[in-house]
Amino acid sequence: MSAAKKDVADAVIRPEIQSMQAYQVSDAAGLVKLDVMESPYRLPDGLAVEIGQLVAELELNRYPVPSATKLRALIREVMQVPAGCDVLLGNGSDECIQYITAAVAREGAVVMAPVPSFAMFAMHALFFRLRFVGMPLREDFTLDSDAFLAAVAKEKPALVWLAFPNNPTGNAFPIADIERIIRAAPGLVVIDEAYQPFAGSTFMPRLAEFDNMVVMRTVSKIGMAGLRLGYVCGRPAWIEAFNKTRSPFNINILTEAVAIKLLQNKKVLDAQAAKVLGEREQLRPALEKLGGLTVYPSAANFLLVRVAGAKGAGTRVFERVKAQGVLVKDFSGGHPSLENCLRLTVGTPEENRILLAALREALK
């Protein structure tokens, strides 16, 4: 970019956007990919062939049906959305976060969430010029519910995000604490259940109980990350409001058709998620036996670990593991409470064996 063009960009782009960094995703080419919580399992061959035939018959010259009526109805059925509640679809849960934030973006409105949590909660607050109030988790990443409730009373947030389980820490906050926050919040509370298939608990059946709560999920963690499909479930009044901020045709025809096919075969995805859950419970004690790591509790498809040592120890282990062909997520240099922390996605038994071997060598 020429100096003159850069001067124009500097003059028109908001200073807070200029000073921030874009969301980073590492290049995983040639590496065992255990950094972004995808399912490690491909589709069975027979189902993959059926999807190929389905895609071949799609009319790609046509726009998708904007309302995605069939897909939304299927989600209501297979995800057991309570009667009387509706569903909004997004291009991943990231886009759902955008639509929800846009809908509540009154001047001076406050957005709250525990920190550290999913980075997009704070980023979208910034994009829409809202004030983000991040409430620090305790040193062990548990929720200080009393402090959170005090902040709710003081700040009167229009929007509260609660990831259940939390990303990147992996733990699920106590249900009773979440209930207290929902009841105390003067605005909307969104329960982000991206990792629900591995958690065992959900607020979905309780949508009718709270008039200020919606549940947000994604199909990315159960084997459909490439489709980019998220959804929000809640009372019709909330979904109608979010839908007004939605881009037309935001769910493409390929995503819709393939998601319908896979959700009709959800038992395959459920079986794969059960394998991941079993692997998580075997990976945890194996990591603890390595020494030099603090392994935090997880109700998700990943484990957060902290490398012992001075600042920079986590990054050194990350680089040594990567040099052996394994990519994990390094949080050093981000939120201060995550210094020396690595997030390890649970993979296949073979991928986990390779990860453990790489960590064993890197920790020497």
Notable traits:
single chain; 364 residues; alpha/beta; 7-stranded mixed sheet; 13 strands; globular
Q: Which SSEs are present, and which pair or pack?
A:
Elements: H1 3-12, H2 15-19, E1 32-33, H3 45-56, H4 69-78, E2 86-90, H5 92-103, E3 110-115, H6 119-127, E4 131-136, H7 145-155, E5 159-163, H8 175-184, E6 188-192, E7 213-218, E8 230-234, H9 236-243, H10 253-264, H11 266-290, E9 293-295, E10 302-307, H12 313-323, E11 326-327, E12 329-330, E13 341-345, H13 349-362
Please tell me about this protein's structure.
This protein has helices spanning 3-12, 15-19, 45-56, 69-78, 92-103, 119-127, 145-155, 175-184, 236-243, 253-264, 266-290, 313-323, 349-362, and strands spanning 32-33, 86-90, 110-115, 131-136, 159-163, 188-192, 213-218, 230-234, 293-295, 302-307, 326-327, 329-330, 341-345. Helix 5 packs across helix 6 and helix 11 (266-290) packs parallel to helix 13 (349-362). It is built from 13 helices and 13 strands. It is 41% helix and 16% strand. It has a 7-stranded mixed beta sheet with strand order 2-8-7-6-5-3-4, with helices on both faces. It has a 4-stranded antiparallel beta sheet with strand order 9-10-13-12. A two-stranded parallel sheet has the order 1-11.
In short:
Helix content is 41%, strand content 16%. By secondary structure, the protein is α/β, with parallel strands linked by helices.
Helix percent reads 40-55%
Largest sheet strand order: 2-8-7-6-5-3-4
What is the β-strand count?
13
The profile of the biggest β sheet is: 7 strands, mixed
Measured distance between first and last alpha carbons: 45 Å
Structural class: alpha/beta
